Amino acid sequence: MRTKTIIPAMSVLDLAAIAVLVHPNVERGAQIGEEIVAAVQAHGLGAVSGGLYDQELRGRIAASEFQLVITLGGDGTVLRAGHLCAPHGISVLPVNFGHLGFLIEVRRDSWQIALDKLIQGEYWLEERLMLQAQHWRGEQQLGTWEVVNEAVVGRGQQVRPLHLSASLDGEPLTTYVADALIAATPTGSTAYALAAGGPILPPTLRNILLLPVAPHLSIDRAIVLAEGATVTLSVLSDHSAVLSIDGQSSIALESQDRVVVTVSQHALKLVRFQPAGYFYRNLITLMDQNPSVDEVS
C-alpha cells in the first residue's frame, strides 16, 4: 500500500515564502494563523499571516511574492483564494475551519501534520479546471471573471422565470424558461449544480456542465460540454436578471445581455496529501452531512 506520494520535480513548490489567509469568522483565527507562521519559520522558511480581506497582503500575493497560500476557513474561503491565486500560478493549501469542506482535506486539528508532510515533500498538486465568464452588452464588454465553481444567470428580485437562450460555439443550442441556468466546472458539480439535481463530475475532468434550475416546459437535463466549448447565455426576458460568479454579489443583467463562458487559461492548484482517489472515498461521507447556518465560508 502506498504511504508516500512522490511528485515530479517540476511540481515541487518553492516554500521560501508562504502566506496564511484567515477568514474573519474563524474563532481564534489570528492566533492560529500566527501559530502556523511560527511553525513555518521554525523550518527556516518565511511566512506571514493576515485576514482574507487584508488588502496589503492580497496585493503582495497578487505581486507573486509567495508560491503557496494556506487558507483557514471553509470552501468559500478556498474559492476566494482561488480567484486571487490562480491567475498568478500560486498554489493553495486549504485547512478546514468551516463545515463541509468539499475542497478541503486538512482538518483544523491536523494542520501540524500537514505542514510536516509539506516540508518533507510528501504531497502532490491537483489542478482544477476554471472557467472565464464575460458580460457583454451589445459590443461592449462590461466585466470578466475567473470562475472556480459556477457562473449562474438567474432571475432577480421578481419571482418570475427567465427566458434564456444558450448557444454553443456560435450556433444555437436551445432555449430555456427557468429560474436560472448554471455553467459549472467539475469542481462546481458538487455545489449549486448538485443542489439543482445535476451529476457529480470527478475533479480531473475538463468539461463544462450546463444545467437549468427549475425549468418550465424546457429541457430539464444537464448537458456536459467539451473543454474547448464556448457557451453563450443570453437574456431574452424584459424583467430583472442577474449574473452570479461563485456565489458572490450579483451583477445586474438587462434584456439581450450575454454571458460568454469558456475554459480559463488558469487553474486552481490545490496541495493534496491523500492518494489521487480521495475524491470518491470522501464523497459519500460529505453527502451525508448538512451545512449549518453558522458555517464559516
Main attributes?
six-stranded antiparallel β-sheet; disordered N terminus; alpha+beta; 19% helix; Tumour Suppressor Smad4; Rossmann fold; 6 helices; 297 residues
CATH homologous superfamily caption of the largest domain: Probable inorganic polyphosphate/atp-NAD kinase, domain 2
For the largest beta sheet, what order do the strands appear in spatially?
A: 7-6-17-14-9-10
Mean pLDDT: 92
Radius of gyration equals: 20 Å
* Shape annotation: elongated
What's the assembly state of these chains?
A: single chain
Largest sheet: 6 strands, antiparallel
If helices are DSSP runs of H or I spanning 4 or more residues, what is the number of helices? 6
Could you tell me the strand content as a percent range? 35-45%
Q: In CATH terms, what is the fold-level topology of the largest domain? A: Tumour Suppressor Smad4
Task: Give the termini distance in whole angstroms.
Answer: 35 Å
Helix content: 10-25%
Overall tally of structural domains: 2
Class by alpha and beta content: alpha+beta
Q: How many strands in all?
A: 17
What is this structure, in a nutshell?
This protein is of the alpha+beta class and 297 residues long.
Helices and strands in order:
Elements: E1 17-22, H1 29-41, E2 46-51, H2 55-62, E3 68-73, H3 75-85, E4 91-96, E5 106-107, H4 111-120, E6 124-137, E7 140-147, E8 150-155, E9 162-168, E10 171-178, E11 180-184, H5 192-195, E12 208-213, E13 223-225, E14 231-235, E15 241-245, E16 251-253, E17 258-272, H6 278-287
Parallel strand pairs: 1-2, 1-3, 3-4, 4-5
Antiparallel strand pairs: 6-7, 6-17, 8-11, 8-15, 9-10, 9-14, 11-12, 12-13, 14-17, 15-16
